[in-house]
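Exercise 7. Given the encoded structure of a 328-residue chain, write a plausible sequence.
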C-alpha cells in the first residue's frame, strides 16, 4: 500500500483530482443494490490509464527520462503516457495495433506522442516497441499493465474508493492485462479487506477458469492474439505476470463475463440514463451490473453497496452512434 500512497502523492503533484462517483436511481433499481459508478472516463486523457502512466514517468531518474519513453498500447495507455511525458518535457513514442480506432490515435497525437502502427498481436507490439526504444537511444519502456509502478498508479482508484465509500461490499473492475484490477485489489486488501474485488471480462477471456486452476496462461499460442470483442481497449487475453501475482491471490473467484450485446445496451444506458459518453470497455461494468449473473452473485453474497469502475470514454462518434442505435 505504501507504493500506492506514493503514486497518489505524485498524482496530486501534477494537479490530478479524484474522479467523481456517479449515481442513478434507475441503475440502483435495476441492479437491486446501491451502485456507485467511479467515473474514470472523466480522468485526464479520458481513462484510468493516466494514473499508472503518470506514476511510472514521475519515478524515472533524470538521465532515464531525458531519453524519452516508449510503450505499446491499444490507445488509452498511449495517450496517458504521452500526457505524462509532456508534463515532464520528454519525448514519447507509442506503438499501437493497426486496428486501433482513429479517435484513440488522434488522442495520442494530441498529447504529443509519435505513433507507430504494428500488427494486432502481442508479439508484434512488444517487438516494435523494443525496436523504437532502441532507436531512441535506450528510451524507458513503460508497459501498459505488467509494471509495478503502473499497477501502483492504478491502485490509487482503490485508495479513493476506500476513503470515499467505506460502506462498500464489492467493486466491479474491468479486466484486460490486469494492471487496474491488480492495483485496486492490493489497495482494498490493505484498507478494506472485506470488500470483494470482482473482475468483469469480455466474453471469451476465461479468467475465471485461470483463477480456478491457478494458471495464468491456459493456451500460450492463443494468448498472442486478441479477444473478439467490441471493447477494443481490453482485447488482451491473459493477465501479465505482475498483476497476476496480486490478482490470483486477492480477486473474488467469481468473474462476470459480458457479451457485445450487453456492452451495447450498457453504452445506451450510459448515454440516455446517465448522460455520459463511454467507450465499449467503459460500459463493461455497467453491463455486468445489469446482468442476470450479477443478480445471482448479489443475492448469494448479500451485496448491498457495489462500486463499478467506468474505465474510459475515448470512442469515435460513429462507433458511439452505431452501438447506441443497435443496443437492445
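Solution.
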Amino acid at each position: 500500500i505504501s507504493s500506492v500512497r506514493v503514486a497518489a502523492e505524485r498524482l496530486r503533484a501534477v494537479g490530478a483530482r479524484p474522479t467523481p462517483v456517479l449515481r442513478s436511481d434507475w441503475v440502483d433499481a435495476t441492479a437491486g443494490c446501491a451502485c456507485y459508478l467511479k467515473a474514470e472516463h472523466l480522468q485526464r486523457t479520458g481513462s484510468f490509464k493516466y494514473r499508472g502512466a503518470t506514476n511510472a514517468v514521475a519515478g524515472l531518474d533524470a538521465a532515464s527520462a531525458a531519453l524519452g519513453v516508449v510503450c505499446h498500447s491499444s490507445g488509452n495507455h498511449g495517450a496517458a503516457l504521452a500526457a505524462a511525458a509532456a508534463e515532464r518535457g520528454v519525448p514519447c513514442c507509442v506503438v499501437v495495433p493497426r486496428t486501433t480506432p482513429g479517435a484513440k490515435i488522434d488522442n495520442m497525437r494530441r498529447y504529443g506522442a509519435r505513433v507507430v502502427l504494428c500488427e494486432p498481436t502481442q508479439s508484434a507490439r512488444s517487438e516494435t516497441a523494443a525496436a523504437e526504444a532502441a532507436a531512441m537511444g535506450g528510451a524507458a519502456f513503460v508497459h501498459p499493465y505488467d509494471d509495478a509502478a503502473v499497477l501502483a498508479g492504478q491502485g490509487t482508484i482503490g485508495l479513493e474508493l476506500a476513503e470515499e465509500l467505506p460502506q462498500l461490499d464489492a467493486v466491479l473492475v474491468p479486466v484486460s492485462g490486469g494492471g487496474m484490477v491488480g492495483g485496486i485489489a492490493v489497495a482494498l486488501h490493505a484498507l478494506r479487506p472485506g470488500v470483494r474485488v470482482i473482475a468483469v471480462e469480455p466474453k471469451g477471456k476465461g479468467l475465471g477458469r485461470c483463477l480456478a486452476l491457478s494458471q495464468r496462461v491456459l493456451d500460450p499460442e492463443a494468448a498472442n492474439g486478441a479477444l473478439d470483442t467490441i471493447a477494443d481497449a481490453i482485447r488482451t487475453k491473459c493477465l501479465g505476470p505482475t498483476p497476476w501475482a496480486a490478482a490470483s491471490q486477492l480477486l473474488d473467484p467469481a468473474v462476470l463475463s459480458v457479451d457485445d450485446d450487453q456492452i451495447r445496451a450498457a453504452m445506451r444506458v450510459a448515454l440516455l440514463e446517465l448522460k455520459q459518453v463511454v467507450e465499449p470497455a467503459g460500459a463493461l461494468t455497467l453491463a455486468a451490473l445489469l446482468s442476470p449473473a450479477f443478480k445471482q452473485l448479489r443475492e448469494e453474497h448479500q451485496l448491498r453497496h457495489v462500486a463499478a469502475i467506468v474505465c474510459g470514454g475515448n470512442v469515435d462518434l460513429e462507433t458511439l452512434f452505431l452501438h447506441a442505435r443497435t443496443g437492445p
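Remark. The two ends are 42 Å apart (CA to CA). Students should compare their own answers with the one above.
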